[in-house]
Amino acid sequence: MDEIDVVIKDVSMRFDTREGTVTAVDGMSFEIKRGEFVSIIGPSGCGKSTVFNVMGGLVGGYEGTVTVGGEKVSGPHPSIGMVFQEESTFPWRTVIDNVAFPLEVKGVGKDERHATARKFIDMVGLSGFEQRYPSELSGGMRQRVALARTLVFEPKILLMDEPFAALDEQTRVLLGDKVLKIQQDLRQTTLLITHNITEAVQLSDRVLIMTFRPGKVKRIVDIRLPRPRSSDVVGSDAFGRYVAEIWNDLREEASRGMADAEEAARTRKA
Ligand SMILES: Nc1ncnc2c1ncn2[C@@H]1O[C@H](COP(=O)(O)OP(=O)(O)OP(=O)(O)O)[C@@H](O)[C@H]1O
Fold first, then answer.
1. Nearest CA owner, ligand 1 atom 16
2. 17 lines ligand 1 (CB under 6 A)
3. What's the ipTM?
4. C-alpha angle with apex 75: 70 to 81, nearest 5 degrees?
5. Ligand 1: which residue has its CA nearest to atom 7?
6. Structural domain tally of the chain?
7. 115 and 98 belong to one structural domain
8. Has residue 266 been placed in a domain?
9. Residue 14, exposed/middle/buried by CB under 10 A (0-12, 13-18, 19+)?
10. Model confidence pTM above 0.90
11. Which of 63, 84, 92, 134 has most Cβ atoms within 10 angstroms of its Cβ?
């Protein structure tokens, strides 16, 4: 798994706002190896979603380069699948027709696309719910439908922007088991954006900690917990040590973020 799959080199992104130019991301460089699971963690507003959007080819106007399998990303890339924070299921379609949608667009016949969709529905633990509509499911189940719909494409690289942010902690940890199993079965190169240290340590091979604005790489921590992993690992001493180590770095950045927000509120009031 030492082959490099994704290279982010000197990426900077600035936005012009009424208050002036905001440097959201400043000279970020990192690499993701083939089959590796990397999480990016950082305080609110540090530029995580900006990195996600740049990598997914959803925004232009940045400096630096993003390459996937040696190819420069300059728009949505066929090797990249994305799962978003906001719910993105189609409410008028059943689970199976949500998951099969990308295959339908490709012109795959109904029997074949339903058979493939069933495989991924099973993988995310939703067998038996194929004929339900999203409104009949919990938030966590709907996010799993969105994940299955991205996986059905069989993207080589999976980008996820806080897909489980709205869920309670227990559900999130248990869903982590599904993600770990999927990662083990498909060996996709995966990047997860998250606020949550537990989630980052539970799932990742490496955790990249970002600084508060402008977003840079503060540190990358190797998570040397054995694989295959399950949520059992969350109770181990080694897990606790990683969480404490990452929190130590993150606390500094989160405090800067908080001070910045308070200062902005004061300025607005004055
Ligand atoms: N389209 C935009 N126009 C202007 N400023 C933007 C835009 N997108 C992001 N920003 C600014 O860039 C900075 C980084 O934003 P970004 O959404 O990437 O952070 P984040 O770490 O994902 O935040 P959160 O964790 O709260 O989602 C913020 O200061 C934000 O206000």
1. 47
2. yes
3. 0.96
4. 80
5. 15
6. 2
7. yes
8. no
9. middle
10. yes
11. 134
